Amino acid sequence: MKLSALAAPVALITIFGIGPFQATAKPFHAQGDRNLVVAQGCPPGLAKKSPSCVPPGQAKKISRGFVVGDVIDIRRAHVVSHPGRYGLSNPPEGDLYVVKDGRLVRVDGRTGQILSILRVVDALLD
């Protein structure tokens, strides 16, 4: 089967995207989306949520029972004995990592004062 003299050039034009068959989509910067919300390493749908970058299921689990500066009873919390399993290095001297009400927090080992709330945890890993 022979290709006609016109079929080969039309096929090449179509394959390489030159001529009247060229794509006409606007580049991203020209699409005019001025309300784009971006958070590093976060999908656009989660970046718009409040709190940002937290899946809805985890956001519901976050209790508002304590904040940084509150004092908790360490005996009623799970003390993390293997911080590496949570992706953490050893805590600073005198501090502890504990899981309290489903949240991983860093506390002062003597007073039980919450120094930082790190993240929500779904399961105890140690």
UniProtKB/TrEMBL annotation:
Gene3D superfamilies: inner membrane protein cigr (3.10.450.160). It comes from the Bacteria. The keyword Signal applies. Keywords: Signal. Residues 1-25 form the signal peptide. This is Nickel/cobalt transporter regulator. It comes from Paracoccus homiensis.
